């Protein structure tokens, strides 16, 4: 998708270069080689061992009262200066910069959808869990349904699930597991992480964003579904209607990653305006 450059944005890309072409797309999400592979594999091995039905239900109970901290959106963005995502094979810089890169990529391509720009900034804020003491394998990385057998496009599926006790449980080890066909992803228990947590934060704090925004936040890391084509047996018609929105968002989540970092100070006033419009004030996390 070629997009026009908005001269009012301050993302540090060469002005004649489409952000999507800054890096060869084939080099993203490389889980077979690269300098970060050992770190990435170790994170997924822990995730795929310990993310079980009981574990996820426990995390919903633990964080469901939103008593961790009272913070504004931009305070949480700033906290992510301290976080480097150990599941990401593409970048090794703080997650706060990725938030602005994603948001600005969307803003360039969709200048008329300010709510979508804000989704770019918000999408990874659930990773604040890692700064609350949660291990990264319970915060970052691709998500997948628990309570059923992992499907083929789950990252490292064949080498990381051997010690997951749910796969020895007949209730959870079949293709459908504990679910009914086409029950809808909203009725599926996803592996616990920043997607589900941020979605719940948005609901609890009554963000005035459209349903598409909530859906994107909740499922943007569900790569085995939106990119791998798996888990269709769980999808409702509404999931398939929403799928193009998640796929459109994913272009900017993935392909705006670049070591040239945005000028955050110039961007903050614009995004503060969106926050004031859709999710103002001090929020419960």
Automatic annotation (TrEMBL):
<keyword id="KW-0560">Oxidoreductase</keyword>
<feature type="binding site">
    <location>
        <position position="220"/>
    </location>
    <ligand>
        <name>Fe cation 2</name>
    </ligand>
</feature>
<feature type="binding site">
    <location>
        <position position="194"/>
    </location>
    <ligand>
        <name>Fe cation 2</name>
    </ligand>
</feature>
<feature type="binding site">
    <location>
        <position position="29"/>
    </location>
    <ligand>
        <name>substrate</name>
    </ligand>
</feature>
<feature type="binding site">
    <location>
        <position position="123"/>
    </location>
    <ligand>
        <name>Fe cation 1</name>
    </ligand>
</feature>
<dbReference type="InterPro" id="IPR007828">
    <property type="entry name" value="Inositol_oxygenase"/>
</dbReference>
<feature type="binding site">
    <location>
        <position position="124"/>
    </location>
    <ligand>
        <name>Fe cation 1</name>
    </ligand>
</feature>
<comment type="pathway">
    <text>Polyol metabolism; myo-inositol degradation into D-glucuronate; D-glucuronate from myo-inositol: step 1/1.</text>
</comment>
<feature type="binding site">
    <location>
        <begin position="141"/>
        <end position="142"/>
    </location>
    <ligand>
        <name>substrate</name>
    </ligand>
</feature>
<dbReference type="GO" id="GO:0050113">
    <property type="term" value="F:inositol oxygenase activity"/>
</dbReference>
<keyword id="KW-0963">Cytoplasm</keyword>
<keyword id="KW-0597">Phosphoprotein</keyword>
<comment type="similarity">
    <text>Belongs to the myo-inositol oxygenase family.</text>
</comment>
<feature type="binding site">
    <location>
        <position position="253"/>
    </location>
    <ligand>
        <name>Fe cation 1</name>
    </ligand>
</feature>
<dbReference type="GO" id="GO:0005737">
    <property type="term" value="C:cytoplasm"/>
</dbReference>
<feature type="binding site">
    <location>
        <begin position="85"/>
        <end position="87"/>
    </location>
    <ligand>
        <name>substrate</name>
    </ligand>
</feature>
<feature type="binding site">
    <location>
        <position position="127"/>
    </location>
    <ligand>
        <name>substrate</name>
    </ligand>
</feature>
<dbReference type="Pfam" id="PF05153">
    <property type="entry name" value="MIOX"/>
</dbReference>
<feature type="modified residue" description="Phosphoserine">
    <location>
        <position position="33"/>
    </location>
</feature>
<protein>
    <recommendedName>
        <fullName>Inositol oxygenase</fullName>
        <ecNumber>1.13.99.1</ecNumber>
    </recommendedName>
</protein>
<dbReference type="GO" id="GO:0005506">
    <property type="term" value="F:iron ion binding"/>
</dbReference>
<feature type="binding site">
    <location>
        <begin position="220"/>
        <end position="221"/>
    </location>
    <ligand>
        <name>substrate</name>
    </ligand>
</feature>
<keyword id="KW-0479">Metal-binding</keyword>
<dbReference type="GO" id="GO:0019310">
    <property type="term" value="P:inositol catabolic process"/>
</dbReference>
<keyword id="KW-0408">Iron</keyword>
<feature type="binding site">
    <location>
        <position position="98"/>
    </location>
    <ligand>
        <name>Fe cation 1</name>
    </ligand>
</feature>
